[in-house]
Amino acid sequence: MTSPRWKALAGACALAGSAFRRMQVCPGMRGADHRLHRTQSQEAVDFFVNVIGCEAANFTLGPFKADDDWMNVHLNVNPKAEIGKFQFLRCGHGTNLEVFEYSAPEQNRTPPKNSDVGGHHLAFYVDDMNKTVAYLKANKVKMLGEPSVFKDGPAAGLTWMYFLAPWGMQLEVVSHPKGMAYQKTGKFQLWDPRSPAK
What we know:
With about 200 residues, the protein is of the alpha+beta class. It folds into 2 domains: about 30-110, no CATH class; about 110-185, 2,3-Dihydroxybiphenyl 1,2-Dioxygenase, domain 1, CATH 3.10.180.10. The chain contains 5 helices and 10 strands. It has helices at about 5-25, 40-50, 70-75, 130-140, 180-185; strands spanning about 35-40, 55-60, 80-85, 85-90, 95-100, 100-105, 120-125, 140-150, 160-165, 170-175. A hairpin with a 5-residue loop joins strand 4 (about 85-90) and strand 5 (about 95-100). The protein is globular and about 55 Å long. The chain starts with a helix and ends in a 13-residue tail after the last helix. About 10% of the residues are buried.
């Protein structure tokens, strides 16, 4: 049997733990604002706008360079690095893209593989996977295999497929028009582009 003293201590620990968790949250965080994409900027802008369907905002910046160590201090890059024009894109109801190109001494110009440290991909939600795949193929986009479908587990209902941008970046299309299995029972829900207001 638990004594009142232990109950009080357990209650205090629970409150302290709850307060600690609240203190760890970045104050005022509402969501992702943009995703940086460093590449051949105009090629990327053209692809994201003309093939994927993003919209170019009337919002550009740059170019940027510095004669001192500003680039290293603020951006953690070579002090002699230079950034060309920034172009901001909006892609449906998802995060914005910030597309630009660096030039820097001893720069690695090879995009990382998905399995490399720093490797990454960008996924777009689509309503109809078959129509999207046919559209991308018609636009000469390099597809990686065929669509994969989750039939079991928490991701059941999700279909996905990777493809490559013309400059080699790995991209993905995903679709789950009836939702995924975890959404039917889980209290916590990931952000869902099908319901942008939520």
